[in-house]
UniProtKB/TrEMBL annotation:
Organism of derivation: Ananas comosus
A GO CC term attached to the entry: membrane
Cofactor(s) needed: heme
This protein's record includes keyword Heme: yes
Phylogenetic placement of the source organism: Eukaryota, Viridiplantae, Streptophyta, Embryophyta, Tracheophyta
InterPro entries hit by this protein: Cyt_P450 (IPR001128), Cyt_P450_CS (IPR017972), Cyt_P450_E_grp-I (IPR002401), Cyt_P450_sf (IPR036396)
Places the protein is found: Membrane
Family to which this protein belongs: Belongs to the cytochrome P450 family.
A Pfam family recorded for this sequence: p450
GO biological process: lipid metabolic process
Name of the molecule in the record: Cytochrome P450 86A22
Signal peptide (UniProt feature, chain positions): 1-17
Transmembrane annotation, as ranges: 51-72
Residues binding heme: C515
Location, primary (coarse class): membrane
């Protein structure tokens, strides 16, 4: 090639010299020489153009062949999964199935035996790290990632960068020593029985004074309600009350907007938008304060101001309450924020992160689970009937057999009564198996590793564990895995709740990061479900479509529009009288009647 270039250069130089020499000749010879030189120059240029075009074509062909060879090796090295295309990887499949993402992932996992690998960026230098994703629902792999090799699979830098503006370095958004310190501190509070009793009081108050009046009004007016919206408001009020003792009252007649709730929702939505774009894109928009990044900044600022004021006020209240008082109220400051303040000298930033992380972790998850629960129960009458029979049995044991079953409804269920609802807990667990509140989660791979099923995962890649798919595998749950059957959670005699392995049922996560608020979540969900089903019959509005919304939390895309009607419990009491006559034979001993079932006055007096 070099020799050819030299020859072409020499020929061009000779042609130029001939043209220059021809200027001293006569006119005719000069014209002839010039014409000849021009033709020679054009020929040389055409030869060079043809050479270079051929060279670039050859280079492009060689590069294309090299890329296809690399891509072929990459595709062959991936384990199962959807089709991977050059450059764009599996993005076409993701886009095509965007409206049914969780079902699509579950179908891929069934076909691949529980684990597959895909690449969303089939570009050399990026594919193995930034683009390679291992997707699994194999319980052995989940135990490996979430427990056995926990330190090798943190949330990672991408997750931390996305949530940092909203959650800081809180427990939900941290790894390593920062996470461990907060986890140990929080665990001490979540294991106390007093916190569960505090949750019980907040839930009882909001049910009795907020939710039930709204549902009763809807039943009387024969107007449908969006139950998902009501539950979101209810759990938000409850979680704020338990987190920092302040009720935002979003669940009130007229369903008013609350500035803090609106700011929190907008901040959460804007944060989740970051997952759609590469980090450099949203970082650039953040610097320019453009679009959703501007919304995020203003919303986070509002949330910060609100929580700063709450923390300041709570500190003053704790100082004043420490002085002698003629009428002490021991339950007044039993919220999570006050508990942290009493135990140590934490900074305001730390306390704010505790409150925010707790709200984010506990608000949407319970309300979403309850939405799917009420929909499933309304479409499975035998399950609803068994729940009602259990409720009637527990109430008969604790409150006696009333002349009119309506007497049972005078007050919310007490903590001890809720704790005995075994079948209801089974139905809620079955709901979470099929419709987990967080359907997918992911981890960052720190060092090369091999999963128990033999799948190699390189450092820098990510592992997505599909909680949605884990509950829908025949290999784990049997041939009836897609059926709503609460009995799979009960002992053979049906009297005890039998939990499944936490790496098969991952709705509350597993391993060191297992949900600290699991018991609180069950308490809240059981209390709300029992109160609603005892008093009302629910039916989906005809024509209303119940579909999944594709987001980090498994919301219903169009809400849950339901008709509400008053329930007549007399048929249930009559059936209980036939099946368990001893339950209604005599009133319970005075010691068994829970005197705290009414709404506690000290909770009702909490400032809103």
């Amino acid at each position: 090639m070099l020799l050819l270039l030299l020859l072409l250069g020499a020929a061009a130089a000779a042609a130029a010299a001939a043209a220059a020499g021809g200027t001293s000749s006569t006119g005719s010879s000069s014209t002839s020489s010039s014409s000849s030189s021009s033709r020679m120059m054009m020929m040389m240029m055409m030869m060079m153009e043809e050479y270079w075009s051929g060279t670039w074509a050859a280079v492009a062909l060689a590069l294309g062949a090299a890329y296809m060879a690399w891509f072929w090796r990459l595709a062959r090295g991936l384990r199962g999964g959807p089709r991977v295309w050059p450059v764009v990887g599996s993005l076409p499949g993701l886009v095509q199935n965007a409206e049914r993402m969780h079902e699509w992932i579950a179908g891929n996992l069934r076909g691949a035996g529980g684990t597959y690998q895909t690449c969303i960026c089939a570009v050399p230098g990026l594919a193995r790290r930034a683009g390679l994703v291992t997707v699994t629902c194999d319980p052995r792999n989940l135990e490996h990632v979430l427990k056995s090799r926990f330190d090798n699979y943190p949330k990672g830098p991408t997750w931390h960068a996305v949530f940092r503006d909203l959650l800081g370095d809180g427990i939900f958004n941290s790894d390593g020593d920062t996470w461990l310190l907060q986890r140990k501190t929080a665990a001490l509070e979540f294991t106390t029985r007093t916190l569960r009793h505090a949750m019980s009081r907040w839930v009882a108050r909001s049910i009795h004074l907020r939710l039930l009046p709204i549902l009763s009004h809807a039943a009387d007016a024969r107007s449908p309600v969006d139950l998902q919206d009501l539950l979101l408001r209810l759990t938000f009020d409850n979680i704020c009350g338990l987190a920092f003792g302040k009720d935002p009252e979003t669940l009130s007649p007229g369903l008013p907007e609350n500035a803090f709730a609106v700011a929190f929702d907008r901040a959460t939505e804007a944060t989740l938008q970051r997952f759609i774009f590469p980090e450099f894109v949203w970082q650039f928009k953040k610097r320019l304060q453009f679009g959703m990044e501007a919304t995020l900044a203003s919303s986070v600022a509002h949330v910060d101001r609100y929580l700063s004021a709450v923390i300041k006020a709570r500190k003053l209240e704790l100082v004043s309450s420490s002085s002698p008082s003629p009428s002490p109220s021991p339950d007044r400051h039993d919220d999570l924020l006050s508990r942290f303040m009493k135990k140590g000298s934490y900074s305001d930033d730390f306390l704010q992160q505790v409150a925010l992380n707790f709200i984010l972790a506990g608000r949407d998850t319970s309300s979403v689970a309850l939405s799917w629960f009420f929909w499933l129960v309304s479409t499975h009458p035998p399950v609803e009937r068994r729940i009602l029979l259990e409720l009637a049995s527990v109430l008969a044991d604790s409150r006696g057999a009333p002349a009119d079953s309506a007497a049972w409804l005078a007050s919310p269920l007490a903590f001890e009564e809720v704790d005995r609802l075994v079948y209801l807990k089974a139905a809620l667990s079955e709901t979470l198996r099929l419709y987990p509140s967080v359907p997918e989660d992911s981890k960052h791979v720190v060092a090369d590793d091999v999963l128990p099923d033999g799948t190699f995962v390189p450092a820098g890649s990510s592992v997505t564990y599909s909680i949605y798919s884990a509950g829908r595998m025949k290999s784990v749950w049997g041939d009836d895995c897609l059926e709503f059957r609460p009995e799979r959670w009960l002992s053979p005699d049906g009297t005890k709740f039998e939990p499944h392995d936490s790496f098969k049922f991952v709705a509350f996560n597993a391993g060191p990061r297992i949900c600290l608020g699991k018991d609180l979540a069950y308490l809240q969900m059981k209390s709300i479900a029992a109160a609603v089903l005892l008093r009302h019959r629910l039916a989906v509005v005809p024509g209303h479509r119940v579909e999944q919304k594709m987001s980090l939390t498994l919301f219903m895309k169009h809400g849950l529009k339901m008709h509400v009607a008053a329930r007549d419990l007399n048929p249930i009491v009559a059936e209980l009288r036939r099946t368990r006559p001893e339950a209604l034979a005599a009133p319970p001993p005075e010691s068994q009647v829970n005197k705290s079932s009414a709404v506690p006055t000290e909770v009702a007096a909490v400032t809103a």
